[in-house]
Amino acid sequence: MDDRQPLIDWMDALEFYARDWDEVFGSQSAYFTQEFWYMLVGCVRAHWAGNPLTVSQLAHSMRSGSNRTREERIKKAVDDGYLKKVKDAKDGRATVVIPTPELETMVVGHLQRTLARVMEKLPPAGR
After folding, report:
1. 77-111 as b/e, with b when 16 or more CB fall inside 10 Å?
2. Is the pTM of this model over 0.90?
3. What is the largest CA-CA distance in the chain?
4. By CB neighbour count within 10 A (0-12 exposed, 13-18 middle, 19+ buried), where does 112 fall?
5. Per-residue model confidence as pLDDT tens digits over 28-52
6. I need a labelling partner for 44 at 20 to 30 A (CA). Which of 16, 35, 86, 101 fits?
7. Cα–Cα distance for residue pair 58/55, rounded to 1 Å
8. Cα separations in angstroms, 111 against 37, 65, 119
9. Domain boundaries, the chain
10. Is residue 122 a contact partner of residue 9, using CB atoms and an 8 Å limit?
11. CATH topology for 5-121?
């Protein structure tokens, strides 16, 4: 049988990533789904790139759900203090969705912890 240890290490890293995401939101289990991951991380990434997403763009970043379901997810994240709807600085007619400082802190912590775990489990080639 071939050596599957690299795959086992990768599975461990992925499981750690998923569990860490769940722990970031503690008792708010609604955020444990991939759909919220796509939405929240996508919002942070677009904001950091200087191109915040409109409500419609953010809704379409989710992989499943009706338009109503997607809009309800955005509303929940706004109501819970993770996202804010603001007028676009480039086009005052458009409304964009940006992460709150709290969400940015949560995502940064999550990404730092999980990156460290992946680097520990799967060091770069040549080390």
Report:
1. beeeebbbeeeeeeeeeeebbbbeeebbebbeebe
2. no
3. 61
4. exposed
5. 888 888 889 889 999 999 999 999 9
6. 16
7. 5
8. 12, 26, 12
9. 5-121
10. yes
11. Arc Repressor Mutant, subunit A (1.10.10)
